[in-house]
Amino acid sequence: MNTDARKLFQPTRIGDIAVANRVVMAPLTRSRADEAHGDIPGSAINVEYYRQRSNAGLIISEGTQVSPVGKGYMATPGIYSDEQVEGWKHITQAVHEAGSKIVAQIWHVGRVTHPALTGGAQPVAPSAIAPRVQAYTHQGKVDAPVPHALSHVEIAQIVAEYRQGAVNAIRAGFDGVEIHGANGYLIDQFLRDGANQRTDAYGGTVENRSRFALEVVDAVIAEIGAGRVGIRLSPVTPANDLSDSNPQAVFGHLVQELDKRGIAFIHFIEGATGGPRDVPGFDFAWARAHFHGTYIANNGYTREMALEAVESGRADAVAFGRLFIANPDLVIRLQRGAPLNTPNPQTFYTPGPAGYIDYPSLEDARDQAVAVA
Ligand code: PHB
Predict the structure, then answer these.
(1) Confidence of residue 367 (pLDDT cuts 50, 70, 90)
(2) Strand pairing category for 12-14 and 17-19
(3) Which residue puts its alpha carbon closest to atom 7 of ligand 1?
(4) Is the pTM for the entire model greater than 0.90?
(5) In ligand 1, which atom is closest to the CA atom of 63?
């Protein structure tokens, strides 16, 4: 029984998903899938990593690419092959046994990649405009090349890949999906005019730039139901060299369309991803008021900010990223006001257990103190 009266720690529902508390583990790329055998998740350390963090009410998986071309980093897991689905089953089962819920973050990076990561394929995007970013490959950092501008047939194929990703997520035992619409990846590239200069039905007006995002959302809803679908958005982030001339206009339209569809949640990165929160251009309070599903807030939240945001109703839930890397028992630490471990960026993306499953929980620390005494 959870006797903590503070709202952050109270159970609720996120769409169709019943959660034990309102602390969410944000999606976190950790680059520890089995790349040699086809970007397969579910190794013993992958399972242990998620199991340790199952005190979160809801876990959002690391981004999982819906196709080989949608991959942008080394050793990220996929969700398009049967072997990947089998691998994910080990993770979802461990999370459920530990009492938590988990959705798959389905991902296509679009132009933010390099042929060295996509099996040789040219990256794709709404328009043939290279991002000023570097991709991390086994050969080191390399400039992302000019992408191929997608045709209508190709756009439909990618929508079908997201659809299959959602089907596969449910087959793998996930409770739902989060569509990755943030951080300058493919859906965001269509939304924002810094990357989308199309003059057809997928570019120009806010309706046209929202079309691809909504086609993906509708395809996923058709397969798994709106109550199991969420989306992550970052209306003002400069991440991955993306920008927009009027974020309020395009994301305002999108939020209203998402609300009509009754999806479970929108997960907002409020500001610059992993950086300043006070970036102008979008009114998050407006979004809160106009979206009637669950509002998950993210970006630089402290314990005090999270308690206040949920208590006041400014957000329904709060997602933590880096703090969940370093604190496997983050919810317990937040409840007790216990000290937090500091994440080590040196091991965010390195293979193996170091910096992945060896951050101590409060219980580990207590056991160690007993052993020393
Ligand atoms: C990253 O690996 O740094 C990364 C991946 C996905 C994101 C943001 C950052 O959405």
Answers:
(1) confident
(2) antiparallel
(3) 183
(4) yes
(5) 6
